[in-house]
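Shipment paperwork, digital attachment
Item: protein structure file
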Amino acid sequence: MGIIKIILFLISIGAASVMGYSAIKKSGFQIPSAPKATSTAQKIIRPATTSKPSISQTPSKSATPTPSYLPNITDVQIPKGFIREQLSPNFKEIKISSISYSASLSTPSNIRLNPSFQTKDKFVNISGWKIQTNRQSLIIPKIINVYDPSGLANETDILIGANNFLNIYSNSSAINKNLRLNKCIGYLENFNKFNPSLSQSCPPIYQNKTEIANFAGFCQTYIMSIGSCKLPDSNYYNNLPGTGEGNACREYLNNIGYANCFQKHRTDSDFLSNEFRAWVNQNIFDPKHDYVLLFDTNGLLVDEYFY
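Attachment content:
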């Protein structure tokens, strides 16, 4: 009997399950099906490829345009407070290389200008340019390029080239003229006291001893004792004997000086010095610190200097 009861119980449970399933299906509820078996390997899903944009569609990178004015000068090189259009075509070609201040009358203040270019045949006219400090300004003057023995040569513009330099001094010129130095210019010191002094490296009075070999021994000895750029001592000159030997010596000594040196060496390739020298009778610099600007004749900036 016990077995029969168990069988009847199982039959009743199955019937109830069939009836329940039928009721759920009639109500419209979808019974999810069991998931299908899949491989343990995961399928890699790649994003769909898209066509590359055409060149016209590709956004261009923003580039700084090359300036048409002074293209070799970068924005970083433009001094603070200035814009590119305020720079001279000669910007940084002529530089303020040094400044020295002096309050002493015996030692003038000085500013030195140098070209930065090395082009052999290039020259820049700097006469009329302005040097401006925090206090005041000065204009670069003209200069005598080749000092004639007559002293009548006119001053002309300073055309500064490679390896040249200009020294400007705060005091006055001993001859009221500005000069380009030359290998004979030191003779001018015999009659004028320049500050600073002119170079005393004149060419020798004679090129070789054969030029004076015919003079009397006392005359040769004296000629060889004369210093560079110096004139014969007037006392010695006047006390020479009135003989043929004395007169010959006196005539030779009489020709020593700037005029004779100029005549002999004017055509030498190294006759003219690299140095231009101007005296402006102005002391425009601050004794302690200053900001110095160099402008061309159009008021455009060439260089700046701090000290």
